[in-house]
Amino acid sequence: MIKKILIGFCLFFSALTWAQEGTASPYSFYGIGDVIFKGAVENRSMGGVSVFSDSIHVNLQNPASFSHLKQTTFTVGANYNNLKLNTTSESEKARRTTIDYLVVAVPVSKKFGASLGLLPFSSVGYKIESINDDPSQQSSRYFGEGGVNRFFGGLGYSINAHLSIGAEVNYNFGNISTNSVEFIPTIQYGTRELNSSRVNGVNFNFGAMYNRKVTEKLTLFGSVAYSPESILNLDNERNITTVLVTNNFTVIPQEEGILQKSTSKLKLPSKLVFGTGIGEVRKWMVGTELTIQQSSNFANRFNDINNVQYENSTKLSLGGYFIPKYNSFNRYLERVTYRAGFNYANTGLIINNESINDYGITFGLGLPLGGSFSNINIGFEYGKRGTTNAGLIEENYINIFISLSLNDKWFVKRKYD
After folding, report:
1. What does UniProt give as the signal peptide span (predicted)?
2. Which of 60, 148, 266, 280 has the greatest count of CB atoms below 10 A from its CB?
3. Inside any domain, residue 413
4. What's phi and psi for 332, nearest 5 deg?
């Protein structure tokens, strides 16, 4: 088991060096890019609901859940995204495959649990072209790539059989680069602007989880998580130069360019998540969760973007799971976990006076592996973000996500030497 984890870490760190593009959305132009859902496939398949945790799955959204683990868990998740971009007159398609997270969680004692992990926090990845039919008018091409990764460590503690608390520290790091070229075909030269930002900073997440039986079979669940406002430090570079744009759109710099360097600070808004659910343990559960984020305090990396504003964002999630018979020995499908959910979000982004909203429906399966507690989790999401109003882009997306969760017992004291 340890060898598998070490090999997994090596593969994952290698994958990060490839600078994977986690999005193809033009909305990733703003801020630090698309903020990626921080959650395991198990929770994502339930619309993002995280009010429930058990002894063999890692709940990445609330650090209090780490105290519930009874076995060491190693989990890695990946996502395939199929995106269709629509305007009032055109449509394009894009695809991305990414690694979503790699996490190791360990039950340190009967009351304590700890976790370490690495995952992307935000992603930038867009290619936009606006070629004017009139060669005497301006045309533009825009590119962006990079993002912010997050290394985290968390600790959960069970106060008693009903209440647990937890805390998590996150180190954020990464690079974002954007490239814009503007030119008029009938004029020999155009202009290129290169912007890059090196990002780093620390933020925290605190959580609590509660459960209590309300009848002989039914258990009530509750959870709350809070991330206070924090600061990201940015080292920025901007290079503006004259370029020659060839007929096949190759860009050839004509001079060294003007280099501007600056440092800035970007606020990560505070976030409050609270939810509740009810169910029969190892049988079924339904829950709902509300996320409130003070996004109105957010800003862009640069101050000369005029068509965007930010408002406080909210997200509502609803979902649950069902297991026909978790301890069935002769019918595999009865041991499968069936999940489904729905979520709706006001993202907090306002472009051309239009709020950018996002909603999706999810389904998933938890497939046990042999006679162990390990499992494969598969999920599917269909959703829509944005609008074609005000010259904007509507995104219709399909996500297929999968995770491998391996469980084992560590730190077991041997009875015999």
Report:
1. 1-19
2. 60
3. no
4. -60, -45
